[in-house]
């Protein structure tokens, strides 16, 4: 029977998990050293992590070596900003608040949180899983910048005008593809063909059994949440009787997570309250630290469970190489391959191919200072391979991640961000 909201009450039970996975403790302690570098300190909304809207900042592009001009692009992009896919987070966040309301134990802050969650839920009616207006505009803007950045793509003079687009079966990806292609085609004579099918789904958004990985990830997340997300102060702000309120839910840690996750979508929409205002900076910092570690564990190049990146990315890598080979055949009319999918593929893909910023395998509890899930896998995250050729027929390629140039640390560049396609292709084939 719980009788107080002391730390000993809420942070309960050192389970066998801590004995089996004692190495987690060492990583968490090491993580404290970089905790002060947490980006949420200056940007609280970054707590939204993978639910945050697309982050774009202009960066001057490095000129290619003399004589090389772009002629083909191969791309994978996550769908744009969206509504929540279902009501789960909001429902779970609301349940204890509704019960507390009937018991008249909500503070003014608690009553406001209840109102805000109900407003957010109402805004979702009829829109679950769909793109928001912001998501539509993100895809249009990315396509427009590709045209501006690489005006040679699709020019009639180079004999290339064919575009193949492939999408996940989910409506938000199909809508992202439609708005992207409409912008990319605007005012130009392009032969565009768009596809989605069960066979395409196998590499655009593969169905992979990650049950074991998620079980291990949950154990790590639970242990970190108990260290970084103490609920006592939050309870005191929301409930006039925190002791009674504690009995209205299975876990205060899980309930706080549901509120954070529910509120993370707010930055993709207009006319909804910012749920993060109910938390202190320290509470948001803790929530982001756990979320960041979780995202890296599951889909980054984690030493904890590295096979998940392989499972999610290997099919897409095969398609990239195959489509690039078709485009590079002499006389090919291919100018672009565009793919539209999900965060659960684009981040594993960047990690699997060893792209700069994702190449080093680290333990998830130690990545605060070297990995930022909000910047790395926000809505509309994309990866672009841009191919260049000179009159001699030599082919170079550079990679952009969220429209910023990235290197392949495992390879020697020809010129900073530009790599021989022959060398890069050989490297990628070794991964397969």
Describe this structure in words.
The chain has 432 residues and is an alpha/beta fold. The protein is 46% helix and 11% strand. Strands 1, 2, 3, 4, 5, 6, 7 and 8 form an eight-stranded mixed β-sheet that branches. It is elongated, with a radius of gyration of 23 Å.
Short synopsis of the structure:
This protein has 432 residues and is α/β, with parallel strands linked by helices.
Secondary structure elements and their pairing?
Blueprint: H1 7-10, H2 16-20, H3 23-32, E1 69-78, H4 88-102, H5 108-124, H6 133-149, E2 162-167, H7 171-185, E3 191-195, H8 198-204, H9 211-228, H10 232-238, H11 242-246, H12 252-264, H13 281-299, H14 307-328, E4 334-341, H15 343-352, H16 373-376, E5 382-389, E6 395-401, E7 404-406, E8 419-420, H17 421-431
Parallel strand pairs: 1-4, 2-3, 2-4
Antiparallel strand pairs: 1-5, 5-6, 6-7, 6-8
Structural class: alpha/beta
Distance between the termini: 55 Å
Helix count from the secondary structure assignment: 17
Fraction of residues in H or I helices = 40-55%
Global shape = elongated
Radius of gyration: 23 Å
Low-confidence stretches: 1-35
Relevant terms:
432 residues, 8-stranded mixed β-sheet, 17 helices, 11% strand, disordered N terminus, alpha/beta, elongated
């Amino acid at each position: 029977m719980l009788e107080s909201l002391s730390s000993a009450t809420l942070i309960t039970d050192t389970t066998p998990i801590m004995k089996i996975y004692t190495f987690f403790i060492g990583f968490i302690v090491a993580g404290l050293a970089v905790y002060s570098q947490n980006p949420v300190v200056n940007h609280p909304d970054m707590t939204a992590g993978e639910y945050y809207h697309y982050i774009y900042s202009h960066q001057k592009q490095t000129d290619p070596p003399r004589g090389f001009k772009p002629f083909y692009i191969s791309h994978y992009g996550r769908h744009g900003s969206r509504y929540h896919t279902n009501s789960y987070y909001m429902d779970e966040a609301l349940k204890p608040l509704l019960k507390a309301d009937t018991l008249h134990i909500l503070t003014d802050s608690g009553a406001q949180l209840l109102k805000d969650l109900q407003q957010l839920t109402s805004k979702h009616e009829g829109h679950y899983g769909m793109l928001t207006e912001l998501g539509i505009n993100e895809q249009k803007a990315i396509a427009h910048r590709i045209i501006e950045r690489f005006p040679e793509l699709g020019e009639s003079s180079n004999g290339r005008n064919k575009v193949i687009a492939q999408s996940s079966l989910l409506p938000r990806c199909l809508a992202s593809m439609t708005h992207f292609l409409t912008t990319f085609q605007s005012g130009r004579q392009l032969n565009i063909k768009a596809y989605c099918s069960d066979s395409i789904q196998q590499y655009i958004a593969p169905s992979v059994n990650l049950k074991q990985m998620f079980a291990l990830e949950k154990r790590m997340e639970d242990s970190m949440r108990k260290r970084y997300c103490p609920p006592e102060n939050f309870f005191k702000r929301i409930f006039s009787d925190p002791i009674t309120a504690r009995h209205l839910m299975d876990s205060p840690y899980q309930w706080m997570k549901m509120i954070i996750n529910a509120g993370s979508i707010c930055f993709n929409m207009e006319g909804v309250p910012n749920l993060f205002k109910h938390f202190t900076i320290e509470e948001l910092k803790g929530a982001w630290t756990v979320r960041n570690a979780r995202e890296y564990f599951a889909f980054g190049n984690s030493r904890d469970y590295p096979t998940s990146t392989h499972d999610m990315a290997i099919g897409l890598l095969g398609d990239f190489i195959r489509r690039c080979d078709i485009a590079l055949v002499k006389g090919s009319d291919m100018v672009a391959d565009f793919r539209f999918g999900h965060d659960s593929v684009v981040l594993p893909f960047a990690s699997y191919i060893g792209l700069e910023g994702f190449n080093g395998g680290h333990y998830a509890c130690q990545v605060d200072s070297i990995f930022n899930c909000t910047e790395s896998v926000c809505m509309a995250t994309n990866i672009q391979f841009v191919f260049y050729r000179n009159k001699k027929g030599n082919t170079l390629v550079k990679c952009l991640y969220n429209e910023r140039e990235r290197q392949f640390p495992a390879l020697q560049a020809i010129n900073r961000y530009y790599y021989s396609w022959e060398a890069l292709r050989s490297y990628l084939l070794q991964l397969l």
